[in-house]
Amino acid sequence: MALTNRTKKWLNKNHAPDLSGKTVIITGANSGVGYKSAEIALYLGAKVIMACRNADKAEAAKAKLRAEYPGAGITVMTLDLADFDSVDAFAAQLQQEKTDIDVFLNNAGVFRKPGKTTAQGFELVMGTNYLGVYRLSEKVLPYLKTLPHKVLYINTVSLIHKAAKTDYGDFFCQRHYGSFKIYARSKLYLARYTYCIAKKYENSNVRILMSHPGIAITPLGINAFGKTVGHAAKAVSVLFNSPEKSALALPFIIANGLPAGSIAGPKKLFGGWGYPKVNRVLKRVKTGGEQLAAKTLEITEKPSHET
Ligand SMILES: NC(=O)c1ccc[n+]([C@@H]2O[C@H](COP(=O)([O-])OP(=O)(O)OC[C@H]3O[C@@H](n4cnc5c(N)ncnc54)[C@H](OP(=O)(O)O)[C@@H]3O)[C@@H](O)[C@H]2O)c1
C-alpha cells in the first residue's frame, strides 16, 4: 500500500531530506517497519538495498516496492543475523563490491523464540538482536569509515530496554528464561553497545544513533502480545503505531542532524505511540560499555557455545 497522504504531509512539514543519489541499506526490509522504511527512503529518492534472510520474501517485497517506484534502484542482499558466517559474508561483499552507503539502518529483529538457537548455538533472541547486530557492526563500521563522505548508522532498539536488567553472569537468561526478559535485555545490550560505538566513532565520518518504533502492529508486534491479544490488538490497530508512522524515525534522524548516541522514536504513552521525537538516553545505556564489550568478546570467541 502506498504511503498515506498524512505521512507525505508529515514528511513535508518536517523538512524530510531529498535522498536523490543516496544509498540506504535496511536490514529486515521485507516486513513491518523495515519495509515501510524502504518505502519512505524510495519516496524521498534514495536507492535502497534490502538486506534480508529469506530470498523469496525479499523478492516479493521488492516486487511490491518496484510496482510503486518503477524506476528506482532496489537491490536485495542476503543477510542472516542469526549466523555469523552469513554476517561475515555480507560485510565482505559490501567491501569487495565497494558499495557506496549513506545510511545503514539495522532494523531486523526477533521476539519470542523459546528453545531456538543461532547457527553458532546462541539463544536466538539475544543471538540475533544483540550478537548478530554486534557482529555486523564490528565488520561493517571499519569499511564505512573508509568512505569519502558522511554516513549515518542506526541501530533499532525498543522502548522495553528501559525495563531490562543487566546480568552478565546469566547472559542468555538461562536461569529464569522469559520471552520479554530476553528481548528487553537484548535491546538494552544493543543500546549500550550502540552508545559506546557512537562515542568511539564520534570524530569520524560515521555518526551512530538509535531508533525505536514504539509499539507497532507488525508480525513481531503481534507475536509480542501473544496470539489472542495480538489479534485483538490488530483489530484495534488504530490505537497503536502503524509500521509507517514508526518508520518515520528514519527521515526524522536524517533531517535533524541528531548527535551521535541519540535515540529517536515515539514519546507518547510511555514511548509506545506517536511521531518520532528525541528520547532521553538512560544512564544505564550510557555506562558500562567496556564491560559489555569484554563480556561479548569472551562469549563470541569461545570455540564452542552453551546457551
Ligand atoms: N513492532 C514493535 O512494536 C516493535 C517494538 C520495539 C522494537 N521493535 C523492533 O523493530 C524492528 C523491526 O521489527 P518489526 O516490528 O517491523 O517486525 P517484523 O515485521 O517481524 O520484521 C522483522 C524483520 O526482521 C527480519 N529478521 C528476523 N530475523 C532475522 C535474521 N536472523 N536475519 C535477518 N533478518 C531477520 C525479519 O525477516 P523475516 O520476514 O524473514 O522473518 C523481518 O524482515 C526489530 O528490531 C524489532 O525488535 C519493534
Folded structure, characterized:
With 307 residues, this protein is α/β, with parallel strands linked by helices. It is 45% helix and 12% strand. It has a single domain, classed as NAD(P)-binding Rossmann-like Domain (Rossmann fold). It has helices at residues 5-13, 32-43, 55-68, 84-96, 124-144, 179-200, 219-225, 227-235, 243-246, 249-256, 268-271, 283-286, 289-300, and strands at residues 23-27, 47-52, 74-78, 103-106, 151-156, 206-211, 263-265, 277-279. α6 (179-200) crosses α13 and α7 crosses α8 (227-235). Residues 27-28, 30-34, 52-54, 57, 79-82, 107-110, 128, 156, 158, 212-213, 215-216, 218-221, 243 line the site of NADP nicotinamide-adenine-dinucleotide phosphate (NAP).
In CATH terms, the superfamily is: NAD(P)-binding Rossmann-like Domain
Give helix and strand order, one letter per element, not per position.
HEHEHEHEHEHEHHHHEHEHH
Bound compounds? NADP nicotinamide-adenine-dinucleotide phosphate
Which outline best applies?
A: globular
Strand portion: 5-15%
Any low-confidence stretches, pLDDT <50, length ≥5? none
Computed CA radius of gyration, to the nearest angstrom: 18 Å
CATH architecture label: 3-Layer(aba) Sandwich
- Spatial order of strands in the largest sheet: 3-2-1-4-5-6-7-8
> CATH top level?
Alpha Beta
**Total domain modules:** 1
Summarize the amount of helix as a percent range: 40-55%
Annotated CATH topology: Rossmann fold
Helices, by number, come to: 13
- Separation, N- and C-terminal Cα atoms: 41 Å
Biggest beta sheet attributes = 8 strands, mixed
Mean pLDDT: 93
Number of DSSP strand runs: 8
Query: Which structural class matches the secondary elements?
Result: alpha/beta
